[in-house]
Amino acid sequence: MAFSASVLTLYPDMFPGPLGLSVSGAALESGKWSLDVTNIREHATDRHHTVDDTPAGGGPGMVMKADVLAAAIDAVASAKDTRPRLLMSPRGRQFDQAMAHDVANGPGVVIVCGRFEGVDERVIAARDLEEISIGDYVLSGGEPAAIVLLDAVVRLLPGVMGCEMSGIEESFERGLLEHPQYTRPRKFEGRQIPEILLSGDHAAIAEWRRRQAEALTAKRRPDLLTRSTTAKSAGT
Ligand code: SAH
Question: Residues with Cβ < 8 Å from 100, sequence gap 6 or more?
Answer without folding.
Answer: 149, 152, 153, 156
